[in-house]
Amino acid sequence: MSDEEKIAGAGAEASDPGEAKEKKVYNLSGVPPAAERPGVSIEQMYSICTTFSEKIFNNPAVGPKLKTAGMVLRMEYYDPENWGEVEPEVTIEFGKDPIEMHTGPCDIEPKAVLRMHSDIAHRFWMQRISMMVALARRQMVAKGPISQVMRLLPIIKPSYPLYKDTLKELGLLELLAYPAEKAAGEEAAEEPAPQSE
Description:
CATH class: Alpha Beta
Number of domains: 1
Order of helices and strands: HHEHEEEHHEHHHH
Strand order of the largest sheet: 3-2-1-4-5
Radius of gyration: 16 Å
CATH architecture: 2-Layer Sandwich
Oligomer: single chain
CATH topology: Nonspecific Lipid-transfer Protein, Chain A
Shape: globular
CATH superfamily: SCP2 sterol-binding domain
């Protein structure tokens, strides 16, 4: 089975993101070997998520709008080359005031789940790949009402510079400089406006 075939579902909606966990499989398409990208430990991953989220939630142009989402979103990350079978999880309760973020496994039931390789997550926030493209390529796998997740994209647009600020603040300069150049044909992360229903 090729790396492209080792994918847990597609970027389509599922009725129950909290259903029994499937066998862990990975989509490694578009992800360079570990030797060709900066290594990030699980502790660093959580540190990035925590610091970055605080900046987003406290940003007056972003935080108040995110609260209106009122949903629980979980992100699941994997990097089998560096982390083995351990998969960091981040769960965000947008309906809380203030918004609450939980790192690591928790009992809070998500309404939607996004699963991706940590390299794809990094490329998304560096504006090197759009969510639409990543979903189409199954580099991101969505469960639950993905249309609600897509509505968050215009809201988080001011957050991209905050991601780079976070990497600088944490001294992760190698990660900040990666990928070094935009490859030929590489998509920008500009997302289309979500269609009204």
